[in-house]
Amino acid sequence: MQTLTVRGKRLTFWNKLCYAIGGAPYQITGSALGFFLQIFLLDVAQLDPFYASIILFVGRAWDAITDPTVGFLVSRSRSTRIGRMMPWILCSAPFAVATYFLIWFVPPFEQGKVVWYLVFYCLFQSMQTCFHVPYSALTMFISTDQTERDSATAYRMTIEVLGTVLGTAIQGQIVGGTNDCPADLEGRNVSKFTVSTVSLDESKQAYMISTGVICIIYLLCTLVLFLGVKERKGMKVHEPYIKLVIGLKLQILLGELLEGNFALFLTYTLGHRKDYQNILLVIMLSGTLTIPLWQWFLTRFGKKKAVYFGMTWAVPFMILIVSIKSKLIISYLVSVAAGVSVAAAFLLPWSMLPDVVDDFKVKNPGVHGHEALFYSFFVFFVKFASGVSLGISTLSLKFAGYETGACLQPEAVSLTLKTLVSLVPVVLIFIGLLILKTYPIDEKRRQDNQKLLQEMLDSDTDSESSALGSNV
Question: Which residues make Cβ contacts (< 8 Å) with residue 61, sequence separation at least 6?
Fold first, then answer.
């Protein structure tokens, strides 16, 4: 495979594709955990909702804490023959795979089961952070041209959304339909219908198979990244950052909130027990196909306008799905439309972050090597917020009377799920858009920064050439 090009040359299709494939493991495992971990802990591991909420909250909070820590360590790492970011990625991948596999294993004991999931969930999040923070920061080391970085980011987001499709498809299609609950539970006694022991064993086995497939893909993607991407050396590396983080984190947070509760919503509120995995898959496929559309839109109209349009697009569909009577065809149509906003939520934050890093470099030319810190703190806020949201949402299900292992849930659980996937995300969208209205980096400022950075780079190159000539 070709390596990334040297300074001044354009990145080829294969350069960008190999770089993008490296982002797939994070999204494959993330979508599987996001959509299925909550329902796995409640209905397969059969934990009390209170303990499940503790695991989800502590795991994500711990994950958030490790981001700035790893970012700091990466920024202080010495460059090696294969770069400064790549050793972190290669060393963390095998441990991430091992701990991920153990998250989905149901231990043959009851006492200590909560500790089991808490420990391995936290360990996996730590290893995943050691992989993803350096990988995210690698964006700043593939080219000095913002247009090339934007293009590579679009490739990356397309592959990452495809990764969520794979994670959702692999996990959903293998584990979907393994329980023996009747399809129509309307008007039936909740206590008479629970998942049988045989069905539970089948579900455990299905989760092991899907996890094994995902682990193999994780390692293959890491290998492609290593073989196809050569990290560039010697690249030099505030109010816009804060506003971007707060505004876009609220947008990403609503995605986390939907992801964590949507499978339960489809199963227990809309009654699509046998089809929920297919509906989730349609959302991810729709998102994958519309990534190029958003890349064109932000290039044509600017990134701020793309954010406004992308986020508000989701609002009517969030309201529609909880307002109308449950019909499978409507759920599929809404899922297609929702995927369009999913694509925007994936692409736009990561496309805008390099602009903030460039803005910082222009205003602080003497400060170098801080790319990993920008990316790690960016990830920190979303993970901490998502941990809080998942913990609170799972705990709210307990207060609503969620019954572990039951095929039908009380009406209060249905109402709670409607609130979590509609009302709360809509509020977060409008708050985030109000904050982003004050985001100062428009297209003119972004282009001016690019000219200044190119002048600084040319000046450094001339200085190095002069120094080399003097030595000779």
Answer: 383, 384, 387, 388, 391
436-470 per-residue burial string, b: 16 or more CB within 10 A, e: under 16: beebebeeeebeebbebbeeeeeeeeeeeeeeeee
The alpha carbon of residue 119 and the mean position of all alpha carbons in its chain are separated, in whole angstroms, by: 21
Domains of the chain: 11-180+199-231 (1.20.1250.20), 247-455 (1.20.1250.20)
User: Tokens 């492609």, residue?
Assistant: 224
Q: How many CB atoms lie within 10 A of CB 64?
A: 22
Tell me the mean pLDDT in the region 176-187.
57
The SS3 of residue 106 is coil
CA-wise closest residue to 279 among 241, 333, 341, 220: 333
pLDDT band at residue 222, thresholds of 50, 70 and 90?
very high
The radius of gyration computed from the CA coordinates of the chain, to the nearest angstrom, equals 23
For Cα atoms 443, 449, 453, give the angle at the middle one, nearest 5 degrees.
145
Specify the range with the lowest mean pLDDT, choosing from 18-27, 228-237, 321-330.
228-237
Whether the CB-CB separation of 248 and 38 falls below 8 Å is answered with no
Crossing angle between the packed helical segments 86-103 and 113-137, to the nearest 10 degrees: 150
**Nearest residue to 78 via CA among 369, 344, 293:** 369
For residue 121, which of 38, 178, 217 has the smallest C-alpha distance? 38
CB 153, CB 354: distance < 8 Å: yes
d(CA 110, CA 45): 10
* Euclidean distance between CA atoms 96 and 157, whole angstroms: 21
4 has a pLDDT exceeding 50: no
Roughly what angle, to the nearest 10 degrees, separates helices 371-400 and 411-418? 150
| Nearest CA among 19, 31, 63 for reference residue 214 | 31
More confident residue, 162 or 261: 162
Digit-coded pLDDT (tens) for 272-309 = 877 877 887 888 788 888 888 888 888 888 887 888 88
CB crowding 334-348: b at 16 or more within 10 Å, else e? bbbbbbbbbbbbbbb
* pTM score: 0.62
